[in-house]
């Protein structure tokens, strides 16, 4: 049986405060608006916040799937615009510490739902910890979110460098968030490219700019996503344009297109961790 390819996009950024979760949530909705079947996974295992951002109260999380207490269908909650959300397992052990039995359960859980989705967006934690690296390595597309702060560029570079040098990853997509002008977004991308071009063998691709917009703060106060609360805002229009661009990205070729493959990559120990 031909398996349904699923595009797995990890949204990451190196540091906190760059608006990663906002990007993940609104991009998920904009893609759903384009007719894609979207699942959004909160992969911030320590400080899950997608449910808070959207005013949702999940009864179960990924931790319950890992422990075998329920299956994936019991965990997934409906979000706005038809997206489905996998709430994070706050404070649980890292994915790389799971037992073989738990690995198998998680792979099975994802394979059960893969037929019903086209895109899985993974909102990673901030920083460059093991959990972040695991999720990013397992995804096909890595979307690095940067904003106009010196630490944002430095931390994004540190993450790209780690993934490139230790795991051989060499293709990253970059989104500039909270920029005051489109030019500011392009300048941020140029700044990051300049450093990576000089020191690393990687290809960065510019995805676009999401403008600074007061509507975002208003939406957050309402515990709603800006794309739903203020669909005509500058910010929402930018997410719409970015989603249209994402729809043109090539679909994964087999076998990388299977969600089970994503989870297998996610839970396998990196080669660098095994003793010689």
Write the layout of secondary structure elements.
Layout: E1 7-12, H1 20-33, E2 38-43, H2 50-53, H3 62-66, H4 72-75, E3 77-78, E4 84-86, H5 100-113, E5 119-124, H6 130-138, E6 141-146, H7 150-167, E7 171-179, H8 182-199, E8 203-211, H9 214-221, H10 226-229, H11 234-246, H12 259-267
Helix pairs in contact: 1-11, 5-12, 6-12, 7-8
The overall pLDDT average reads 86
From the spread of the alpha carbons, the general shape counts as: globular
How many strand units?
A: 8
CATH class: Alpha Beta
Strand content: 15-25%
Radius of gyration: 18 Å
By secondary-structure content and strand pairing, the structural class works out as alpha/beta
Helix fraction, binned, reads: 40-55%
- How would you describe the oligomerization state of the chains in this entry? single chain
Largest sheet: 8 strands, mixed
Tell me the CATH architecture: 3-Layer(aba) Sandwich
Quickly count the helices.
12
Q: CATH H-level name... which superfamily?
A: P-loop containing nucleotide triphosphate hydrolases
Strand order of the largest sheet: 3-4-2-5-1-6-7-8
Compute the separation of the termini in Å.
39 Å
How many domain regions?
Answer: 1
Structure description:
The protein has helices at residues 20-33, 50-53, 62-66, 72-75, 100-113, 130-138, 150-167, 182-199, 214-221, 226-229, 234-246, 259-267; strands at residues 7-12, 38-43, 77-78, 84-86, 119-124, 141-146, 171-179, 203-211. It is an alpha/beta fold. The protein has a single domain (7-265), classed as 3-Layer(aba) Sandwich (Rossmann fold), CATH 3.40.50. The chain has an eight-stranded mixed β-sheet with strand order 3-4-2-5-1-6-7-8, with helices on both faces. β3 and β4 (84-86) form a beta hairpin. The termini are far apart. Residues 271-276 have low confidence and may be disordered. It comes from Pseudomonas segetis. This is Flagellar biosynthesis protein FlhG. GO terms for molecular function: ATP binding; ATP hydrolysis activity.
